[in-house]
């Protein structure tokens, strides 16, 4: 199993937009405020910023050369330096690759490539994501501090940890 996490360049922006549309479609099951636009598409409104601003970084995830998902990371001015070096904005694995240990392996590779203090959040109603991240933390023996907060009417679970 060869997992690659590579920063997406401007030529990969359409791929990232497609993956984020799929991510938002999946997430819409858990949040009523995630809706399609007038063209029937889910659009990640701030995708352009991830290709323009230092500290907002898009990554493509590949397994044995095939696109498997994507990750969006915030750093620098887009995080709270007192608590985290990185904010895991989005972590998406295509459905076909889920429940096979690939997401766990991708998380491990990410943390190896980018060690530091992280903030990771999930919608509390997104039980599969909450369960996934709790498994990641347990398997990696991470010391995690968790808070619950509200954002746009949604209950959010937010974890802080270092790798």
Automatic annotation (TrEMBL):
Pfam families linked: Acetyltransf_1 (PF00583)
SUPFAM superfamilies: Acyl-CoA N-acyltransferases (Nat)
Taxonomic superkingdom: Bacteria
Molecular function in Gene Ontology: acyltransferase activity, transferring groups other than amino-acyl groups
Domain (N-acetyltransferase) ranges: 17-163
Record keywords, A-Z: Transferase
Protein name stated in the entry: GNAT family N-acetyltransferase
Organism per entry: Cohnella endophytica
């Amino acid at each position: 199993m060869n997992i690659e996490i590579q920063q997406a360049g401007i030529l990969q922006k359409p791929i990232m937009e497609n993956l984020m549309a799929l991510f938002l479609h999946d997430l819409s099951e858990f949040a009523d405020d995630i809706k399609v636009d007038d063209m029937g598409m889910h659009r990640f409104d701030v995708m352009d910023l991830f290709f323009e601003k230092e500290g907002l970084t898009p990554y493509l995830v590949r397994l044995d050369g095939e696109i498997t998902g994507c990750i969006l990371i915030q750093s620098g001015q887009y995080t709270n330096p007192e608590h985290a070096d990185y904010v895991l904005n989005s972590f998406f694995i295509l459905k076909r690759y889920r429940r096979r240990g690939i997401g766990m392996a991708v998380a491990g590779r990410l943390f190896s490539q980018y060690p530091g203090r992280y903030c990771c959040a999930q919608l509390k109603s997104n039980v599969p994501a909450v369960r996934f991240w709790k498994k990641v933390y347990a398997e990696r023996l991470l010391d995690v501090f968790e808070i619950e907060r509200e954002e746009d009417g949604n209950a959010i679970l937010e974890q802080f940890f270092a790798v």
